[in-house]
Design brief:
Elements: H1 3-8, H2 27-39, E1 67-68, E2 71-72, E3 85-86, H3 87-103, H4 117-122, H5 137-152, E4 153-155, E5 158-159, E6 162-163, H6 166-169, H7 176-180, E7 193-194, H8 201-216, H9 220-238, H10 261-274, H11 277-287, H12 292-295, H13 306-316, H14 328-335, H15 359-374, H16 381-391, H17 419-422, H18 464-467, H19 471-488, H20 493-496, H21 515-519, E8 524-529, E9 532-537, E10 543-548, E11 554-560, E12 564-568, E13 573-581, E14 585-592
Length: 593
C-alpha cells in the first residue's frame, strides 16, 4: 500500500469502457465469485491464523506478539497488500460484511472449512477442494475479525486502531510470516501499536460490527462475548472524536468531518440487537450531526459512510428523525444512478488508474441491494447485477477485476500488489523481479483497484495505483454477490444443515418491522419540465412538498389537500424535492432550468 492511494482514490480522470452484449454470467459463476471474494479475507489474516496463502511457506503464522500495554492484540485483517492493520478501513470492511451477512444470509454458502484443513488435505485450493462444515463461510471469516475487535476493545479508555508502521512495512516484499521475523525497522516484531487515538469513527464501526455479530452468530457464547465488546468499543467511540492519523497512509482530513457515522451506526446496531431505547435515543440525537451535505458529493467508501447511514436510518426508524433531508433512495440515485454511463456507476471526474474506480460499481451495488432488501422491493435488481457483472468481466474489454476470476472468457488480473500472493520469503527479492505465485494462490479473490479506461491489465506488481487489493474494496462486492445469490439460488439453514439462531419472539424484531411504511412510497409520482413540477399520489389525502438545494437548505415548501399539485421552482439548478403525506414519503431529484 502507498500513502497516495487513498487520497487519489477520491480524485479521477474521465473514461469508462461501455459494456457489450456478451453471454450473461450464470448462477454458478456468481457462486464461484462469491466463494473467491469471501475467501480473500482468509488471505488477509494476521496472527495465529490460519492464513491459507501462507500454507506451504516456512512461516505460516505472523505477528503473534502484537500487544498493547501487555495485552494480546494479535489477529485481525491486514489492510491491503501489505501487513499493517489500519482500523479505519478494517472497521468499514468488517461492518459492511457483517451487515451483508445479516441481511443476505441465504446468499452466503458453506463451501469450505474455516481453518482451510480441507484444502490442505485435498492438496486442492480450488472450489472443488473445499468441504462444507455446516457453518457459512462468511460467518467463519467474520468470526476471525470479530475476535480481534474483542481484543482491541480493551476498555472505555483504550482501543487499538492501528498495528504496525506503514513506512517500515513497505521496505521489503515478503510474506507476513517472513516479515514478522525481520527487525522493527523493516516491519517486523515488535510492532508499534496505536491504542489511545482520538478516534470515534473506528471504534464506532467496530462496535456496529460486533453488535451485528451478537445478533447473528448462532453460538450463544459468541453472542455474549461480541455484545460485551460492542458496548466497550462504543463507550470509547462515544467519548472520542475524529479519525486516527496514520503517517500519511490515512489522514483524518480525508473524512472531511464525517466521523460521527461510526458511533451513529454503533448506536443503531446496538439498538437493533438489544432493543434498548437509550441507544435509539442516542442515535436519533446524533443523526442530526451527520454531514449529509459533505457526503452526497462522493461515493461510498471507508471515508464516506454517509450513504450507508442514510439507508440504515431510514430503514430502522421508518420515518427518519429530524425530517430527514436526504431520503435514502434519492441520495443513492444522486451519487450513482444519475452519474451512470450505460448503467455502470462511475465518478464523473474519471475512472482511470489511480482512482480506484471499482469502488463505484461495488459500493453502489451493495447499497442498492441493502436498500431493496430493507424496503422489501426488487426495484434495483437489474442495475445491481449489471454493475457486479461488469466487475467480473461483463464489459467491452472482457476484463475481470477479481484476481483469479476468469469465467465467461474474462481476463483476470495476474499481478496484484499483494505480498502474500507471491509467497516470497527472501527479503532480498524486489517487487518487480519476476516473482510468480504458487499455483494455489492464483485464486486470490481480491479485487484490484482497476483502470476502466484501459483495455488491458497492468503487469507491473509495484503499480499499486491499479493493482492494489484491499479489504475495504472487497467487502461491498461480497455483499452485493450475497444479495444476488439470495435472489437467484438461496440456501436456507435447513439446506445446509446449519443450526438456526433462536429469536426472542417476545420482543419487536426491528429488522422485520420496517417494510410496511416504505412500501407505500410507490403511490407518489413526480414529473418536471423546465422549472414546472407536477406531483400526484394514488392516496387521496393531504401532502406536503419540500424543495431543498444541494446543501440541504429548504428553499420552498408547499401543501396540497388533494391528489395533485403543480408548482414552479423559483430558481435554476438541481434540487431535491421531498413529498410527504401521513402514509407515504419519497424524495426526487429535479433539474430546473
Amino acid at each position: 500500500m502507498n500513502y497516495k492511494k487513498s487520497f487519489l482514490s477520491g480524485l479521477a480522470i474521465f473514461g469508462l469502457a461501455a459494456t457489450n452484449a456478451i453471454a450473461a454470467l450464470s448462477t454458478d459463476d456468481y457462486v464461484e465469485a462469491a466463494w473467491m471474494t469471501t475467501r480473500f479475507f482468509g488471505a488477509q489474516r494476521s496472527g495465529q491464523g490460519p492464513n491459507w496463502v501462507l500454507d506451504g511457506t516456512n512461516n505460516p503464522t505472523s505477528f503473534t506478539k502484537d500487544s498493547y500495554n501487555g495485552k494480546d492484540v494479535s489477529g485481525g485483517w491486514f489492510d491491503c497488500g501489505d501487513h499493517v492493520m489500519y482500523g479505519q478501513s478494517q472497521g468499514f470492511a468488517s461492518y459492511v460484511l457483517a451487515l451483508s451477512y445479516a441481511e443476505f444470509t441465504e446468499g452466503f454458502y458453506d463451501l469450505y472449512t474455516g481453518d482451510y484443513t480441507d484444502y490442505k488435505a485435498a492438496n486442492d485450493y480450488t472450489m472443488k477442494g473445499g468441504k462444507p462444515n455446516k457453518v457459512r463461510d462468511l460467518l467463519e471469516e467474520l468470526r476471525y475479525e470479530a475476535d480481534f475487535w474483542v481484543k482491541a476493545a480493551i476498555d472505555a479508555n483504550n482501543f487499538v486502531t492501528v498495528k504496525g508502521d506503514g513506512n517500515a512495512d513497505h521496505t521489503k516484499w515478503v510474506t507476513a510470516g517472513a516479515m514478522s521475523k525481520l527487525g522493527a525497522g523493516e516491519g517486523g516484531e515488535p510492532r508499534s501499536i496505536t491504542g489511545n487515538a482520538n478516534d470515534g469513527f473506528t471504534p464506532g464501526l467496530a462496535a456496529a460490527m460486533l453488535a451485528v455479530m451478537a445478533r447473528v452468530d448462532p453460538d450463544t457464547a459468541n453472542q455474549a462475548k461480541y455484545l460485551k465488546a460492542a458496548k466497550t468499543a462504543y463507550s470509547y467511540a462515544k467519548s472520542h472524536k475524529g479519525v486516527t492519523n496514520s503517517q500519511g497512509f490515512y489522514e483524518s482530513s480525508w473524512w472531511d468531518g464525517r466521523w460521527e457515522d461510526g458511533p451513529f451506526l454503533a448506536e443503531l446496531e446496538l439498538y437493533r440487537t438489544t432493543k434498548e431505547e437509550s441507544y435509539k435515543t442516542d442515535a436519533i440525537e446524533r443523526y442530526g450531526k451527520l454531514k449529509f451535505s459533505l457526503g452526497e458529493g462522493t461515493h461510498f467508501m471507508y471515508s464516506n459512510v454517509i450513504p450507508l447511514s442514510a439507508v440504515m436510518a431510514e430503514a430502522v426508524f421508518e420515518e427518519p428523525p429530524h425530517g430527514m433531508r436526504k431520503e435514502a433512495s434519492g441520495l443513492l440515485d444522486l451519487i450513482y444512478e444519475e452519474k451512470a454511463k450505460d448503467k455502470i456507476f462511475q465518478n464523473p471526474n474519471g475512472m482511470g488508474s489511480g482512482k480506484f474506480p471499482v469502488r463505484l460499481p461495488a459500493g453502489g451495488a451493495f447499497l442498492y441491494a441493502l436498500y431493496d432488501k430493507l424496503n422489501n422491493t426488487s426495484a434495483y435488481d437489474d442495475m445491481i447485477e449489471k454493475n457486479v457483472a461488469y466487475l467480473l468481466g461483463d464489459n467491452s474489454n472482457k476484463k475481470s477485476y477479481v484476481v483469479g476470476f476468469s469465467k465467461n472468457g474474462a481476463n483476470a488480473p495476474t499481478s496484484p500488489h499483494h505480498r502474500g500472493y507471491y509467497g516470497n520469503e527472501d527479503p532480498g527479492r524486489e517487487v518487480d523481479s519476476g516473482l510468480q505465485p504458487p499455483a494455489k494462490n492464483k485464486l486470490l479473490g481480491g479485487m484490484i483497484a482497476g483502470d476502466f479506461g484501459s483495455g488491458s491489465h497492468s503487469g507491473t506488481v509495484s503499480n499499486w495505483q491499479t493493482n492494489e487489493v484491499c479489504v475495504d474494496m472487497n467487502a461491498p462486492l461480497v455483499g452485493a454477490l450475497g444479495y444476488i445469490l439470495s435472489k437467484k439460488a438461496p440456501k436456507t439453514d435447513e439446506d445446509l444443515g446449519i443450526k438456526t439462531v433462536k429469536k426472542d419472539t417476545t420482543k419487536k424484531d426491528t429488522s422485520d418491522a420496517i417494510f410496511a411504511h416504505r412500501a407505500l412510497n410507490r403511490n407518489i409520482s413526480l414529473t418536471s419540465s423546465g422549472s414546472m413540477v407536477s406531483v400526484s399520489q394514488a392516496l387521496n389525502m393531504p401532502f406536503k412538498v419540500q424543495v431543498f438545494d444541494l446543501t440541504g437548505k429548504l428553499v420552498q415548501e408547499l401543501k396540497s389537500e388533494g391528489k395533485n399539485l403543480e408548482f414552479k421552482i423559483e430558481s435554476k439548478g438541481v434540487f431535491r424535492v421531498r413529498v410527504v403525506s401521513a402514509r407515504a414519503s419519497e424524495m426526487f431529484t429535479v433539474k430546473a432550468y
